[in-house]
Amino acid sequence: MACTGRAEAMDAFFDARADGYDDHMRANVAGFDAFYRAAARAIETSSPVESILDLGIGTGLELAAVFERIPQAQVTGIDLSQGMIDQLQQRYADRSAQIRLIHGSFFDIDLGTAEYDATISVMALHHWLPEVKIELYRRIRLALHPGGVFVNADYIVDGDEALRLRTQHPDAGASDREGLRHIDIPCSADEEREILLRAGFSRVKVSFATDRSAVIAARS
After folding, report:
1. Residue 168 confidence (pLDDT)
2. In what order do the strands lie in the sheet with 202-209?
3. Is residue 179 over pLDDT 90?
4. pLDDT at residue 4 above 60?
5. What angle do CA 167, 81, 123 make, to 5 degrees?
6. For 163, which of 49, 185, 192, 208 is 20 to 30 Å away at the CA?
């Protein structure tokens, strides 16, 4: 999973791979259909869900399951790759009134305060170090309505592998919010849970897991 050599800029990496991204994910995510359905099922709050923030929305692979479960959802999606956004717009042209897309980095864009019922991120947050993610997770928590949920469905590794990737990868130091380099440095599920708790979330639960992926839901 981890890249070798000098990492590409994040936007250039995904722009160059936008056309084949969906096929790549279907071939490489174990239990693809179950994983994406589990991510959508984890979007549960104490009141009906209407507004969803999607970080790293990409081509919108997760939206099929999200709209199947919550057909009325209004989705705000942020992504650094215009090529991926273009793919999403073509696929969901019939739902354009329900999808607001923002081209840019979710580290730089104001996520607001108490704006959303739920936030979801699928296969997007394994490119950053824990100390960077904790600040993002705090902003996500603030962007949720009281009782809202943050669903992080992402690659995971065991603790030893997570440490190895961060200490041995030549570009690990560039994987911060400033550099935005494409580097795969996933955490373990236990480490993700700890980061979410430190960010102020409660009732953190792993609702789906394989040896390489997990769906983790955290309550605001």
Report:
1. 77
2. 99-103, 74-79, 51-55, 116-122, 144-155, 213-219, 202-209
3. no
4. no
5. 50
6. 208
* Helix (H), strand (E) at residue 117: strand 116-122
Closest CA to 75 of 95, 99, 93: 99
- Give the start-to-end residue ranges of the domains of the chain: 10-148+156-184+191-219
Helix (H, G, I), strand (E, B) or coil at 33: helix
CATH superfamily ID and name for 10-148+156-184+191-219 = Vaccinia Virus protein VP39 (3.40.50.150)
Where is average pLDDT lowest: 168-172, 190-194, 199-203?
Answer: 168-172
What is the residue whose two structure tokens read 């000098």? 6
Rounded Cα distance between 167 and 35, Å, is: 29
- Give Cα 25 to chain centroid, integer Å: 14
Read off the pLDDT of each residue in 193-202 and give the average, rounded to a whole number: 97
**Model confidence at 181: pLDDT above 80:** no
Q: Among candidates 43, 46, 30, 39, which has minimal Cα distance to 60?
A: 39
User: Which two tokens mark 9?
Assistant: 């800029």
Overall residue count recorded for the chain in this entry = 220
pLDDT of residue 171: 60
Alpha helices (H) in the chain, listed in sequence order: 10-17, 21-28, 32-41, 63-69, 82-91, 130-143, 159-168, 189-198
- Tell me the average pLDDT across 37-64: 96
Region of 31 (left: φ > 0; alpha: ψ -120 to 50; beta: rest) is left
What tokens appear for 154 in the block?
């992402």
Name the CA dihedral angle for 69, 150, 55, 131, rounded to a multiple of 10 degrees. -160
